Amino acid sequence: MLVPVLVFAAEPSVDSHPILKETNWTLVSRSTDFRDDIVMEGYENKDRSYLMLVDTYLGEEVIRRYFVRKDSKMVLAIQQVKIQDEWRIITNAYFDFEKIRDESGKLSAIVIIVKDNTREFFRREVKRK
Q1: Closest to 1 measured CA to CA, from 91, 107, 97, 88
Q2: Cβ atoms 66, 20 nearer than 8 A
Q3: What is the full DSSP assignment across 29-91?
Q4: Per the domain annotation, does 59 fall within a domain?
Q5: Which pLDDT band holds residue 15 (cuts at 50, 70, 90)?
Q6: In total, how many domains does the chain have?
């Protein structure tokens, strides 16, 4: 599964965009894949000008996508991935995923791969706890 993202920034994200300073989020949607323990949640701020999508894999919040409302459409503003307990901004790349299953077929880990069309930037493995 490829998920389009917005050049990979190697430094931790900084609170330069106002969307990253927003603290008043309300849950508006939730999708759960019980078989693979994947949860995707959508949040809006009070005036509905921002949308945040949060992906949780195997109980760990790993990816956040932030959108800004422009001309009644939601436009991707920032994407982050959690690496070694720090949120890092990802741009001009893709998220790809590899699922690792045990002998019984149960998902034991997910590998998140950040890459563009020519190279892989890094891998982040999330293991079942």
Answers
A1: 97
A2: yes
A3: EEEEETTTTEEEEEEEETTSSEEEEEEEETTEEEEEEEEEEETTEEEEEEEEEEETTEEEE--
A4: yes
A5: low
A6: 1
Residue 105 lies in a domain: no
Q: Residue 65: which domain range?
A: 2-92
65, 64, 124: which is closest to 100 by C-alpha? 124
Q: Is residue 125 assigned to a domain?
A: no
Does the pLDDT at position 118 exceed 80? yes
Q: Could you report the per-residue pLDDT of 33-64, keeping only the tens digit for each?
A: 988 889 999 999 999 999 999 999 999 999 99
State residue 98 phi and psi, 5-degree precision: -120, 130
Pairwise CA distance, residues 73 & 68, whole Å: 8
